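3.2 Worked example (two chains)
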Amino acid sequence: MGCAFVGCQGAGAEPRLYTIADAATGLRAGQRAALGETPCHGDIFHIQQQCEGLANRLARLARREQLDSARIRPVRVALKRQRDRLPGFAKVLDGKLAAIAQRFDVPEYQVRAVCLLQRKPETSQAYWQRRKQLNRPPGWKFHGILEAVSDAMDETHRSSPMVGNLNGRLRNYFFLRRHLGQGYLDLLRFFLNHRPFARSEHPGRVGKSPAEPMTGKRHPHWLELLGFERFHRSPFPA
């Protein structure tokens, strides 16, 4: 399960809230109950993972459809049911590309050409050949457009792995109690926000809690914040 809240900022427009969720009916029902008519786009992570697994399996087969129809049908049905939701992120990106074209006063097809350039790996010869072609028109602000398009693509969410990751972390604590009250959830939230990271992809976060980078301030141990006194082992033997 996963649902991420993200925003879209167009040229001269107010930020527009939308969500990203997988195909779970319960999750989408909750989204409608909480946010009403707020758009809920399809999460491409799960369907992409499903398709990749199928492709890897079928790549090892000679007569694909007939020999593994049991795996093909679930993917086909999933694609059919989610076909209207999965391209939701593309509409968001379309709006951003149109805004970039308006900002730089260039035709939209040129901005889309820069967007398609990002599909090629920067280490390939094809990338640099195409980049040279796009940079030819005199007076065209290619580098500014390239940076704007890259930022737009990076900021356009297509899946919700962050929330799925958080759900996986929380599940480890839920089995400790049969009934989850608000008090327990508040304590768990406080613990997760103030417990230091033991490791991180970002070295600057190691040894710091999630709250510290956001506030820019150090804070005591989370037990001391709750008013408890921490046990300290004496350095001298009894």
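3.2.1 Second chain
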Amino acid sequence: MTIGDGETWGTMRSTTEARRLVDEQLNGLAAALEAAGLEEDDLIAGQFTLAPQYDYGGVRRRFLGYLARRDVQVDVDNLERLNPLLDAALGEGIEGFQFIEYQTSREAELRAQARELAVADSRRQAEELATAYGASLGPVISISYRNTTPTPYRIGQEQMIGMASFRAQEATSMPYVPGDLSFIDRVEVVFELLVD
């Protein structure tokens, strides 16, 4: 499971101060997540951006400072660890999360099952069509296989905001329940048709 695009950020009058603030937040976040049971390799601090910020409310724009931002990705291998990690992140000033993406450790096995089902389905459909036209299947002429990437189940930003509001009312920790992960394979086969 991946908690994607959490972010640390800060607005300061100078670029150096803004970057220092973000680095401090990130270091605090890393320490808090480690204390909550996260392995060091599971935290990825990605892209760093720095941009001037202005107030456009008056006749002239007014310089407010520089906004520094650092994107963070966290990989979690157990749903039971998710709430403590989210709490630790929010406690360190993370402003929000873009998504939670669920994956499975059985991906190779499920891909193989999807491929087997696709092959069986392609043969069944070909046999039904051949029979409908008074023919039978001969040898395979060609096979086209399209392995598709699995569709991860994501909880998006709007759902995350709703969950945050729910938890802010001091409710008990809400469990995270993933939806279905889809593994889709396509096999296109051309058979020779045998007609009596």
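3.3 Remarks
Residues 1-8, 153-172 have pLDDT under 50 and may be disordered.
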